[in-house]
Each structure stands twice: as structure tokens, then as C-alpha cells.
Amino acid sequence: MGAPTSMLRWMTVLGGLGAGVLIHLMMTQMQHNGLFDNSYMKHRTIHVAEEEVSRVYMKRDAMEDKLARTRVLCLVISSPKGRPNREHINSTWGQHCGKLLFVHNKKEADLPTLVLDQKDSEVCKNWMSHKITFEKVFMEYEEKFDWFFVIEDTSWVIIENLRYFLLTYNSTTPIYFGHITADQYPDRGAGFVLSQKALQLLHLVFGDDKLCPDDSKLMAAKNPDHHLAKCLNNAGVEIGDSRDIRGRQRFNVETPQELISHNQGPDCCSDYAISFHYVSPANMYVLEYMTYHLRPFGYNYTPPIDLNRPRTKTPSPQ
């Protein structure tokens, strides 16, 4: 027997009031912390608060269902000397991706690879390697994945937090997220993620010499990531704000140690941080342990959605 209509109405009202109170408390705290200054406009902060509330109020079964249906392709840009890093990523955070591909110029039988037709020295450095990567991804994986995550092979990623962040976004929206620099382009060391629609629009402008010419000088681009950002902007793809409700970064350009020491504590970055850069192979295993295995007794711990994550043989850190 269902609940009376009047009771359902009251439950809806109370839920709405709870969400409103939560947003108000968040806004009050942010005003106190000075987050309405130039770098954090008030209307933008309200939007972030609404996104956070949407996640908080999402029922666990609905969350698990959407998380399970969120398909993420991880593209790790590697280098000729990056074999050790590829091995360690494949044994740690790479296992959490929907699919993991290492982008470089040599096929490896024991590691998943997206091979580029470029010289080894050019794979990570020039615009054409970026363009070839996204063209290959579009042709082979555009319909198979919702989000396309790009990062370097010296980074650590918590894919569960990436999926959690993307819960309130639709992959049919032309948008991308990352650590956006002052020059308005994503830092690849911290990683960035494109929606399926963004990839589709990027593919379209690749054939337009006015919107996305191959000559970086014509784009006044400082580097391949800057060139990519300009092409995405010309394609009508929005830069999303991935910072949390307190203005802390989710995509980080430094190691956890550097961020914590520079900022004097854990407020250095979001509690749901997605990535860290310049992480050594040995520290990848430290972060693997701290993220997925260490449990403080008595702390309110929610079991992960997938308790039977497959494991592979772990190579020795170098």
C-alpha cells in the first residue's frame, strides 16, 4: 500500500527545504572564506552548490546505477622511456577505467596501446600527435564511451571520484573539465575529461582550416593543450568548472605532498580529488594503499560499489 498523497507532498516539501538550507549553509561558509572574489563569481558558486546538493541527495541505488553506466575511456600520454610508468599505472589506478589505453608510438603485447604514426620524440610534444590521437579515438571508441579522460603517465588518478564528479553531467552536453590554467587551457599533467559530444564537435572542426588549423602559429597557441583548447572553444565546447564547493581543485598539478606542504594541511585540495601530477612509481603504490586499503577504525566507512575489483601481478616500483 502506498503512502498517502498528503504525506508524499510533505516529504517533497521537507526534501526541498533541506536542500535549500544546505545550499544556504554552503553559501554562508563560502562568503566567510572569501570565495566570492574575482576568481569565484557568485552565480558560478551557486551552480556548484546546486551540483553538490544533487549528489548528496541522490539515492544510493540510483547513484550505483548511474556510476555503473558511466563509461570512461582513459588515455595516458606516454613517452619512449615511460615503460615503467605504464606498467605501474596498469597495475594500480588504470584498472579502474572502463578501458585503459597508453598513447605512444610502439605497440606492446602486454599493455593496451593506442599507436600513433609519429616519431618517438614527437608523441607528447606536437599538435599533430594530439590531433591523430583524438581522430583515432573518435573512429574507434566514440560510440563505446561517454567520457574521454586524457592524462600523462606521471600522474595518479582516482577514477571513482571522476565518475562521482560526472554524476550530475550529461555526456551529450558539449563540455570538458580539468585544471584550467590562466591562459584558459587544461593542464594535461592534471588530466582533463571530454564529453562524448565534445569529442564529436572536435572531430568536426578538425576538417576546418579556419576553426582548427594544423599550424599552431595561426592559433597563437603556446603548446598542444592550448591549441586543443582553442579548437574546442571554436567548436562551441564549454569549459566546465571542476572545483568543489569550497573552491578547491579536483584536478591537481602537483603531488599530494607538495600540495599539503604548500597549503599547510588537507585543505590544499578537494576531499574528492581526482588527480595528482608528478607521482613516482613507488608513490603510486603508496597512494593505492592509502586510497583503497587503509581503513581507520571507528570512522564511518561506506563500502565501495565494486568489492571484487580484478587485480594483476604488481611489478616492483623503480
Helix content: 25-40%
Main β sheet profile: 7 strands, mixed
- The computed structural class is alpha/beta
Please provide the count of β strands: 9
Radius of gyration: 21 Å
Strand percentage lies at 5-15%
Form type: globular
- Tally the helices: 10
Helices and strands, in order, run as HHHEHEEHEEHEEHHEHEH
Low-confidence stretches: 7-44, 306-314
Query: Strands of the largest sheet, in order across it?
Result: 3-2-1-4-7-6-8
End-to-end Cα distance:
62 Å
Overall pLDDT metric: 81
SSE arrangement:
Blueprint: H1 5-32, H2 42-56, H3 60-69, E1 72-77, H4 83-91, E2 99-104, E3 113-115, H5 127-141, E4 147-152, E5 156-157, H6 159-166, E6 175-178, E7 192-195, H7 196-205, H8 224-234, E8 238-239, H9 256-263, E9 275-276, H10 281-292
Parallel strand pairs: 1-2, 1-4, 2-3, 6-8
Antiparallel strand pairs: 4-7, 5-9, 6-7
Give me a quick take on this structure.
The protein has helices at residues 5-32, 42-56, 60-69, 83-91, 127-141, 159-166, 196-205, 224-234, 256-263, 281-292; strands at residues 72-77, 99-104, 113-115, 147-152, 156-157, 175-178, 192-195, 238-239, 275-276. It has 318 residues and is of the alpha/beta class.
Describe the model.
The protein is α/β, with parallel strands linked by helices and 318 residues long. The chain is 40% helix and 11% strand. The chain is built from ten helices and nine strands. It has helices spanning 5-32, 42-56, 60-69, 83-91, 127-141, 159-166, 196-205, 224-234, 256-263, 281-292, and strands spanning 72-77, 99-104, 113-115, 147-152, 156-157, 175-178, 192-195, 238-239, 275-276. Helix 5 (127-141) packs across helix 8 (224-234). The protein starts with a helix and ends in a 26-residue tail after the last helix.
